[in-house]
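Final report, closing paragraph on structural work. Over the funding period we assembled a curated collection of sequence-structure pairs, and we close with a single example.
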Amino acid sequence: MRAAARSLRRLTGPRHPGHTMAAVDLGALSLPVGDDGVVIGDDAEGRPLMVGFHRSTPYDVLLIGGLWTAQVLALRAAGTGARVAVETGRPQAWTTLAQAAGAGLDCITLHEVGRVPPMGATVGSPVVVIRDCGMRPPRGRVVSAPWQSVLTLLPYLSPVAPRLLRSATLVGVQRVSPQEAGQIGRILGLAEGESGALPTLADGVTLWCAGAERNWVMTSGTDAETGLLGVARRMD
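Its predicted structure, as stored:
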């Protein structure tokens, strides 16, 4: 019996020669790493487009569009592990979403306008603040900071919109009137065709602008999102 045990301990697995390659071929090696962030929809080629809300530097996003898109982004941000604080004057529009999102956990919390407490964002506990404060959102007490992004929702262009358009790092524009499209185009430096297309956009389509970069994005709800929020819509 002891001899059999000693024999088993001496068993070794199969041996293979090491893997080698010429030094000149090392440049061909690559490690595919996908983007990290929140999927905001598909671009014009049907590829998923992501926005990284969790950053070590302040990040301000402006969305001139509908509540549906803002709520989808809130759900998806919470799905990445962020704490989402919603500053809103219409809590009834957010209550069902907040209750459904966390399954008993406060991953999406609702706050009155001007009453968002310090969130204590860290690299391990990032925060996304969504400001749904109407046409004239007051200057927020809680602002963007490292690991704390702020998304401001405007249903339409308003007197505060030019300031927000110029200061935001990322701007999303959904269907607007021709007059609004012209003003937005001048501020963002859009091409004539881009600003001319804004009044004709379908529900769920957003033009996202970051500096000189432009992306037309179609946001479609998952089955769970559609069951909770309904289908994509520009008007609320």
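The helical segments are 2-9, 67-79, 95-102, 161-167, 178-188, 192-197, 223-229. The chain has one domain: 38-228. We thank the funder for supporting this effort.
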